[in-house]
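ligand=flavin mononucleotide
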Amino acid sequence: MTLDPARWLWAAGAILLWLALIALIVWRERRARARARARSEAMAGDSEAVLVAFASQTGFAEELAWMTAKALGQGGVGARVLSFSDMDIETLKTAGRALLIVSTTGEGDPPDAAAGFVRRAMGCNADLSDLRFGLLALGDRSYDRFCGFGHAVDGWLRRSGAEPLFDPVEVDDGDAGAIRHWQHQLNQIAGVASAPDWTPPAYEPWRLASRTLVNPGSPGAEAYHLAFEPAGPAPDWSAGDIAEIGVPARDGQPAPGAREYSIASLPEDGRLELLIRLMRRPDGQLGLASGWLTQTLALGDEVGMRVRVNRGFHGPSAETPLILIGNGTGIAGLRAHLKARASAGAGAWLLFGERTRAHDAFFDAELQAWLASGVLTRLDRAFSRDAGGGRYVQDLISSAAADVRAWVDRGAAVYVCGSLEGMSQGVNSALQQALGEARLLELLETGRYRRDVY
Ligand SMILES: Cc1cc2nc3c(=O)[nH]c(=O)nc-3n(C[C@H](O)[C@H](O)[C@H](O)COP(=O)(O)O)c2cc1C
């Protein structure tokens, strides 16, 4: 052992330096942790998560609700996304700030899933003086009551003492400008300068592979079964989803925009199939989109198409018994569901209405094969123009009311696809008769009664 004091001094100095270094590291770590804690406490204290509530019929409002929550999150603002069906007065009273995204359906009506909230909460004024809200109202100006439900929600909130954060933003037919305006408001709330990217998916090129007239000789307008093959990358979709086709400008007229059709096939078919009715205006002119798709477009021609996710009409689990009800070209969406049931090894009951058995039994061979294989547990069809006819799909429900009840007792979901006028109201009243008003409302609110009507 050395007794050289200089060496002792060096050793002590080195140890002190090492201890000081460790102390510095520990101190800096503690300070960083304290800062992070303060930041997170400040965030939590400063803003309870913003409530983002949606009332959606076909899924657009729901999609925007999730994008809204994501945009807030990007600015460090927490968000809680809730359907109107899961919301009550207390939720609003205690929310602090709420962003409400609501669509309008029917004739100025609330989406099905919001019916319960309307009944429970909106009948009377509540004390919502602690609530500040922003409203995005989705609608379409071609309807008489543009954004009818959005306006009803806005009026009720104001009457209840809630304070608007900004004027309601109205969206006409998905108008991108109005949605950008909403994003701008979100950026203000989230304190971010740049808008998140909400651009809808671009149109993909698809080639017309086949087109078949499915109802030659029908007393109704011609209906065509079209199949498209992807000319580029094929998107994924589920039964119930919608194809948006970009209709090009023609004859010096401006492009009429996109048209929506229920998809009648599944991605595993390798083709996107549609059932399109040729529309004629009173003056005999063909519908712009249906005329182009069923008459002008040639085999091999390309169209721009994109898939719109229609969550409100996605199928239930394979274990849930399924009743499918529809008329006319509404069978397109139901066919995609039947294909999905077939591949899941599940069955379904189809009730379908058209004009004549001889000419309008759409997809008859396929339905017979599904009956034989058990995918169709039961098939009921009504043909209104047949001898002794005058029977519509809703009459099938009335005749089979006891069976409909038994299926619903076993947990069945009821999906309706087809025309808004006549069919959907008729089917609704027949279901009300069969199940009782309260029961049908309960099915509606719990997502067991779903409609895709147009
Ligand atoms: C059957 C049906 C009825 C509609 N009725 C109205 C209406 O009365 N007033 C309106 O402004 N928009 C109406 N719309 C347009 C929708 O509000 C609009 O398409 C909205 O973007 C749908 O949002 P969602 O997918 O969240 O339900 C209707 C749409 C459909 C399909």
